[in-house]
Design a protein that fits this description.
mainly beta; 114 residues; 0% helix; globular; 51% strand
Length: 114
């Protein structure tokens, strides 16, 4: 299998058109069937007014085909506490996801900085 139950993933949804809502998801894989994954975690949605990603408070379950070209999928450390992950801008890096502990993921989608 390409992904195992218990792994944690950070998923970026590719924009289909210019004004598409920018969505990201971070969660733990609960079930796998080939490349389909049932993942429980949190959604981050880009807010045009504040120009930042906002984390939705409630946990969600989503099903994602990690082999589909519409997603950019990163496997993250299993020790990451998903509830603590936030987005922020880091000097000389750009946008990152972090738990303010040991986990940091540069999530600049299509450039060196965002």
């Amino acid at each position: 299998m390409i992904v195992e139950v218990g792994e944690k993933l950070h998923v970026m949804y590719r924009s289909l058109y210019e004004k598409s809502t920018r969505r990201h998801f971070i969660g733990e894989v609960k079930a796998v069937d080939r490349s389909l994954c049932r993942i429980e975690g949190y959604v981050f949605v880009y807010d045009d007014k504040s120009t930042e990603f906002i984390k939705k408070a409630e946990k969600r379950i989503t099903i994602i085909d990690v082999a589909e070209s519409g997603f950019i999928v990163n496997v993250i450390d299993s020790a990451v506490v998903l509830e603590n992950v936030r987005y922020k801008y880091a000097p000389n890096v750009g946008l990152i996801a972090t738990d303010n502990n040991n986990f940091t993921l540069n999530i600049n989608e299509f450039g060196s900085k965002s």
